[in-house]
Amino acid sequence: MMLKRIVFFFLSVAFTSCSKGNSDALFTKLESSQTGIDFQNEVANGENMNIFKYRNFYNGGGVAIGDINNDGLADVFFTSNLGENKLYLNKGDLKFEDITTKSGVNGKKAWSTGVVMVDINGDGFLDIYVCDAGSNIDAIRKSQLYINNGNSTFTEKAAEYNLADTGITTHAAFFDYDKDGDLDCYILNNSFLPVSSLNYSNKRELRDKDWDVADILKGGGDKLMRNDNGKFVDVSESAGIYGSLIGFGLGVTVGDVNGDLYPDIYISNDFYERDYLYINNKNGTFSEQIQTWATHISQASMGADMADINNDGRADIFTTDMLPEGDERLKTTTSFDNYDLLTRKLSMDFFNQYMSNALHINDGARFTEIANYAGVAKTDWSWGALLFDMDNDGYKDIYVCNGIYHDLTNQDFMDFFANDLMQKMVITGKKDDIETIIAKMPSTPIPNYAFKNNHNLTFTNNATNWGLDTPSFSNGAAYGDLDNDGDLDLVVNNVNMESFVYRNNSEKNKANHFVKVKLKGAAQNKFALGSVVELYSGKEIIRQELIPSRGFQSSIDYVMTFGLGNKKIDSLQVIWPNGKSKTIKKVALNTTINLSIADATTDYVFKSTQPKPLFKEVKSNFLAHKENDYIDFDYEGLISKMLSQEGPSLAVGDINGDGNEDVFIGGAKGQSGKIYLNKGNNSFAVTSQKALDTDANFEDTAASFFDADGDGDLDLLVGSGGNERTSPDNYLNRLYLNNGKGTFVKSTTVIPSASTNVSVIAPNDFDNDGDVDVFVGSRSVPGVYGIDPKHLLLENDGKGNFTNVIDKKAFKLNATGMITDAVWEDIDNDNKKDLIIVGDWIAPQIFKNTGRRLAAFKSNLSNYSGFWNSVQCVDLNNDGKKDFIIGNKGTNTAYKASAKNPMKLFTNDFDNNGTIEQITTRSIEGRDMPINLKQELAKQIPSIKKKNLSYGDYAKKSVQEIFAQDVIANSLQKSAVIQESVVAINKGNGQFEIKVLPDQVQFSSVNTSCVMDINKDGILDIILGGNQYEFKPQFGRLDASHGCVLLGNKKGEYSWLPYANSGFFITGEVQKMRIIKNKNNTTAILAVLNNNAPKLFTSNE
């Protein structure tokens, strides 16, 4: 639960009873003396209305931009929470006149929130709908609908349209969801119930009116209002829209998500309720499908926007949350859900929620969330989110409004409140007055964010360079071309400071062009809401959808402005709400194109070209892997990720000599491993193996088939692992001998074990004596992350008896660290296979096989310490030398290690209490700053509390400043400098050329890889599997991979194949993948998943 929830909880307990920018910048902030816009949303805490009485007191107001008098100039409307809303008429040249009083839009209100300009009655003039919320005490809380009289005056008629009594409303969106030609309305409400009183209630299906609470607490459920001849009728229940009091709506975003030209709805919910994605069923109903489309979402979703950021013609979604970017601010204002609460919420169907902005990239059937990769995850306490082309380069950028007038979650203030203030009240018997308490809350204005689109799914915050870095408390914002010069100006509504009006200066860059499009609809939709305009430029589509409600509580201009950069525009197509379309072949640049629905006579035809995918999934009867219930964080409080959840293991080999490769899939603790016989034709039958069933209490973390006893058939060696600190008997390596027919009996020979968490079993006759020896690598010492585990080099006597010879023949191997994978291959072409190992917090290492021993082999790979998960060794470029495919963590992570800013792991008994702790740091300006919050570190290392550090003090200290010099010097230290998954091309003599794999690969971890020539062009291609879920909540989870197919070319480059083309699509944590060969020369790919059933794929020929 976020800190603001905690604050409100104990505050309610206490009180229930009682830049100007420079002239060269992209944007220029205009003074009110220039524009005439002097609006300020003043919010002052009073006795009856304050932050303690009303949870959303600092949520701020919205902005609407639109041409209310049809003079070709966009006008501006601001909402004020407590004060008077304002309407400013654009007089040209960015000069505005306040016409609030004479226009009649200053009617009675309680607490204005969102605003939309919309022609609700189809007369060709924009009306203004103002949402109302605020404390339930105030009886005049009604939303207002100001009908445009056509002469710059308005008459309030919300009740006539049945849009007055809407509830505690944040915002509204108008759109034609049922395609009947008039505009319907989605009312976004915010439950008035105290969050602490709900105790994570999941009564999502119970409608507002049916809750057993006082009527004064109702009015929180969302509503879908259908327009029936000018009267709006609540059809929420029959349409499939939730209307529960656990809905804390802060954002409503409308657009076509699935490409069927029907509007879908994304709802951002604050607090613990998950967001909703309503997919339009095209029959007047919706299906809520967030868990089908997304893999995770923001936790406290606030503002949102929907637009195409990568010019692929599909609408992507960006949501804001409240995660600070700066380390110091993070540590002074933030706390995160613990793992137990996360799992509790998951069990109650609240989905995967993490405190972070979310950027959902739409591939037409699902979202890939990449906010961390894109660099847009952390923007502090954020509200408005707008996706629009700020610099007219043809790509949409991201603008984020942020700030909270008082830092309600400031940890030091919370300590002060909980301790000093409460103690004083107990001793004196007097409650401090509200003003005194509020005055002690810090107030920190911070700059908004302006992310420039780098055209590669990454963004750079250009707020300073663009003149948008004035510190503020900003909420709603809207954009429109206020001065008709072909670029989008920006208006921002702030709390307790003057609003911002930014003039966009993009027109000064003559290299960048634009096109403006003004649409004319018909009948009851004169402004053609729901229309889609697409500009085609080569393979790119610059797309906009005409839906004015955007961001947070705001509404954008109806005239569409397209930045083009220097792109050549091949054609422009408009798709009208009635299904008609019109295409313009010759598009005049730097002009406004007026288009009318009346001129569109051609029916839009959907593009139906479906590529034939390279792979197809085959149904199989493999049993699902099921993890035992164990939470590593309960025993190791400072580790970032659980190590007990990394199964299952996988081994492939022909165990019965029929020419078809068979399969062993390991089990979790309490689940026996299974052997499946390959019957051919991709059919597998589970076999009865009593020896495996007897050993079900071992966790099978590594396995390999090889002939251990020299009798000509394949035996099975299984490594045990996990992360539970239990008896060494639970971590035994086990050898099962094959009777020649595929039935296995446990060997009576004792196989050496190191009582470690085994990660890899790699067989190879390293001493060339005719029998198969084995390297057994370990991931960790169970229950003590960061300590280097022992590894095993098992020499075979030819009869299946093994001796550990690592100290005699490969003594440096034991000092390599936490190994995750290993492979034997001849790296230096001396006809002897060398050992290559990769691991966690280490660099890839090669141990040269001299024929007698394994010796460290120098290579430039030693410069690339990372979080390596897997290694594959194959000659990728046909030059006769073996290359590597090395899987890493990826860069879609909360923190990123790099050569310039490495991450480090310090392991020690920091407080001399007999328990080993691990502190992970990241480098900030050359200092090693812990990634742990103070409360987290102090819980694990109580001696921290004795230092009496405030949160503010702690936030400024490096690990070397928190602990004594000798403690740090005696710590085991590891570092990581790269997170990208790569190929390493062998240039000989220990030199490798590192090539980072395509962007899409870096969206998640790579846990495993396969190599084959998929498209039969004579060049090897790569198949990757990944994802890692079991992180602490503050680190999110890596879930953006659905498997990657990379096609190679003659230049040694790899291109990522979209899922529709590859056919290789897996949701889940893919731990291992292997190619299975059949006697008829066909192959299949088997992927095993953690906590899920394996997947089998074959060539789609």
Average predicted local confidence, pLDDT: 93
Unreliable spans are 1-21
Largest sheet: 5 strands, antiparallel
The number of distinct β-strands equals 75
Helix content: 10-25%
Strand order of the largest sheet: 35-34-39-40-42
Plain-language structure description:
By secondary structure, the protein is mainly beta. It is built from 18 helices and 75 strands. A hairpin with an 8-residue loop joins strand 56 (818-825) and strand 57 (834-842). It is globular. The chain starts with a helix and ends with a strand.
Brief summary of the model shown:
Helix content is 10%, strand content 34%.
Which secondary structure elements does this structure contain, and how are they paired or packed?
Blueprint: H1 3-15, E1 27-29, H2 32-35, E2 63-66, E3 75-78, E4 86-92, E5 95-98, H3 100-103, E6 112-118, E7 127-132, E8 144-148, E9 154-156, E10 169-175, E11 184-189, H4 195-198, E12 223-228, E13 231-234, H5 236-239, E14 249-255, E15 264-269, E16 276-280, E17 286-288, H6 290-293, E18 297-298, E19 304-307, E20 316-319, H7 327-333, H8 339-347, E21 353-354, E22 358-362, E23 367-369, H9 371-374, E24 382-388, E25 397-402, H10 411-428, H11 434-439, E26 446-447, E27 449-453, E28 459-461, E29 471-472, E30 474-480, E31 489-494, E32 500-504, E33 513-520, E34 532-537, E35 540-545, E36 549-550, E37 554-555, E38 560-565, E39 571-575, E40 580-584, E41 592-596, E42 602-603, E43 615-618, E44 650-653, E45 662-665, E46 674-678, E47 684-686, H12 690-694, E48 700-706, E49 715-720, E50 734-738, E51 744-746, E52 757-764, E53 773-780, E54 792-796, E55 802-804, H13 806-809, E56 818-825, E57 834-842, E58 845-849, E59 854-857, E60 866-867, E61 870-874, E62 883-887, E63 903-908, E64 917-924, E65 927-930, H14 934-940, H15 951-955, ...
Parallel strand pairs: 18-21, 33-41
Antiparallel strand pairs: 1-32, 2-3, 3-4, 4-5, 6-7, 7-8, 8-9, 10-11, 11-12, 12-13, 14-15, 15-16, 16-17, 19-20, 20-22, 22-23, 24-25, 25-27, 26-29, 27-28, 30-31, 31-32, 33-38, 34-35, 34-39, 36-37, 39-40, 40-42, 43-75, 44-45, 45-46, 46-47, 48-49, 49-50, 50-51, 52-53, 53-54, 54-55, 56-57, 57-58, ...
